[in-house]
Amino acid sequence: MLSEQIQAKINRELKKYPADQKQSAVMAALRFVQDEKGWVATGDMADVAAYLGMPQMAVYEVASFYHMYNLKPMGRHTITVCTNLPCQLGGVNETVAYLESKLGIGFGEVTADGTFGLREGECMGACVDAPLFTVSNKRICGRLTPEKIDQILSELSQL
Length: 159
What we know:
Blueprint: H1 4-14, H2 26-37, H3 42-52, H4 56-65, E1 77-82, H5 85-89, H6 92-103, E2 109-110, E3 116-121, E4 132-135, E5 139-142, H7 146-157
Parallel strand pairs: 1-3
Antiparallel strand pairs: 1-4, 2-3, 4-5
Helix pairs in contact: 1-2, 2-3, 3-4
């Protein structure tokens, strides 16, 4: 069941769309669920579908298509690394190797303490700052060096 807070946020979002197009709020609804719970479970997708009056499969299609939705628990801070061509040319392979070494995990994994999750992502549209990653879809960190990564991880560990 969607929390009262999520329902209130969805209701605010629904005001942006015609009454007969509630499904237009599906991406926002999924974001609200993920912001509250850290990921979007199948049951959450069913709840969103029921709330918006759309098929559960349609919600799943959206959630599984876009890389910003976590379909399994991914830690308190999900680091999503862009691995597209500009980031490849900018040295993302070294960035990934450093992150994997520093965190002790690979893509799709979570640190033992549940603090960090590491994901591979698609282009984030900030190619000039390659290589880069996002933190929980809220913050873009670019022009990454081992020193900058250490600083970011240290800051996040204290939150």
